[in-house]
Specification:
- By secondary structure, the protein is an alpha+beta fold.
- It has three domains: 90 residues, no CATH class; 97 residues, DNA polymerase, domain 1 (Orthogonal Bundle), CATH 1.10.150; 183 residues, Orthogonal Bundle (hpI Integrase, Chain A).
- 51% of the residues lie in helices and 11% in strands.
- The protein is built from 16 helices and seven strands.
- The strands form two sheets. Strands 1-2-3-4 form a four-stranded antiparallel sheet. The chain has a three-stranded antiparallel sheet with strand order 5-6-7.
- The longest helix is centred in the N-terminal third of the chain and has 26 residues.
- The relative contact order is 0.07.
């Protein structure tokens, strides 16, 4: 039904009729052929020869869903095969490692495999996060957790464990989503049966943590922009924070990589590092360069040249890990100085994350369309943007509720 061939490697979806299951059905597998050797990868689906023959044109919901699941398994193996053949590095061992089958069917092994792949792809932030989650999981359980042990009950106990460690609702949600991502991949690879999958409606549902209400109002932004401290360093980091706010709430990881070549027709154009490897469509963000932004560039930036970075944080020779460390260090320095400013102004704690939330919330307060805000932030869906604006929406509801009994006006 599905077939792909390149550079001597063939990937096909097949009904393995060599041996029937006890229920009389046969397993559907993805067959990979290379140098006349065949390897089979399970899809977790079983069918009769009759249904297999008519499935490609079937319109019934049951067969359509099975076809879609088989297609997902095929696409996954095809993608990994294609990447390996493009590099001239194909082997069954490497393919199995990429699919998470070379390291054993434990949650720990699949996490380690994901971390290894992320490191190879130089996605250091995600790599560090998955490493952080598996360390937490191993503190809770052990260094060898069979996939079948990750049940609804196990997940509920792990959730309680994280709460006992005083983790925030957002952090707990992120830990559980990382585990879900690993199990999703294991299910696609046939390492985990559908009946063993613990997430979903009627099973374990991840509670989305609502972020803290950290957006500032326009008057507070004005206070920060006009703040005059005693230290030139404070002025420097204040300006960087203000630039982040004006530049669509840009992340520090993206800020340090900006070059003069990113400036096109008076706008800064960039793709978020966070989504460039995970989004199907390359989404470019555009931020109009305001007078304030131009002044900050002139005050603290490198000389204007297409090959130059906008700001002097990188030299272009850093490894992915070195770039991550520089990003973390710069973020800490900005946040430290902004905490000083926040305390002096009576605003409270201010961070680079505050700048991003404030950009979105102030635009919403001023009547900007949520679709425009979402595109400006580089979000892939409006749900993520809605999370940013959750505090604002509640604030509006509270204000409107008071109007119902405001008898004095």
């Amino acid at each position: 039904m599905y077939k792909y061939a390149k550079d001597g490697v063939t990937v096909s979806s097949v009904l393995d009729t060599r041996r029937a299951k006890k229920n009389g059905l046969y397993p559907v597998k993805i067959q990979v052929t290379y140098k006349r050797i065949q390897k089979y990868y399970a899809t977790g689906k079983e069918m009769s020869p009759h249904d297999w023959e008519k499935m490609s044109k079937a319109k019934s919901k049951r067969l359509s869903e099975i076809r879609q699941d088989i297609g997902s398994s095929f696409d996954l193996i095809k993608k990994q095969t294609q990447e390996l053949t493009d590099k001239g590095e194909f082997s069954f061992e490497t393919l199995s490692q990429r699919l998470g089958r070379g390291s054993g069917n434990t949650l720990n092994a699949l996490f380690r495999h994901r971390i290894k792949v992320l490191k190879t792809e130089q996605r250091i932030g995600n790599m560090l996060w998955y490493n952080n989650v598996i360390k937490s999981v191993e503190r809770f359980a052990s260094n060898r957790i069979p996939l079948e042990n990750v049940t609804v009950h196990w997940l509920k106990r792990y959730e309680r464990f994280l709460k006992a460690e005083d983790k925030s609702p957002v952090t707990i949600s992120m830990h559980l989503r990382a585990i879900r991502a690993i199990l999703n991949e294991a299910r696609k690879n046939g390492c985990l049966k559908d009946t063993q999958y613990p997430f979903g409606k009627g099973k374990f549902e991840i509670q989305e943590g609502e972020g803290r209400k950290i957006a500032l109002n326009i008057r507070q932004i004005e206070q920060i922009a006009n703040y005059q401290g005693d230290s030139p360093l404070t002025a420097y980091y204040r300006d960087l924070w203000f630039f982040i706010y004006l530049c669509n709430g840009i992340n520090v990881a993206d800020l340090i990589k900006l070059k003069y070549s990113n400036i096109v027709d008076g706008e800064i154009c960039f793709v978020r590092q966070k989504t460039e490897h995970t989004s199907r469509m390359r989404k470019e963000i555009r931020a109009v360069i305001t007078e304030q932004m131009q002044a900050i560039i002139q005050r603290w930036g490198n000389p204007a040249s297409a090959d130059n970075y906008l700001f002097p944080f990188l030299n272009g020779r850093e490894t992915a890990m070195e770039m991550k460390i520089k990003t973390q260090n710069l973020t800490r320095r900005i946040n430290w100085h902004m905490h000083i400013i926040g305390k002096a102004l009576g605003i409270g704690k201010i961070s680079t994350y505050t700048a991003r939330h404030s950009f979105a919330t102030i635009l919403k307060r001023r009547g900007a369309n949520i679709i425009y805000i979402s595109e400006s932030l580089g979000h892939n869906d409006l749900k993520t943007t809605a999370c940013y604006l959750a505090g604002f929406e509640k604030e509006e509801r509270e204000k409107n509720a008071h109007l119902l009994t405001d008898f004095g006006k």
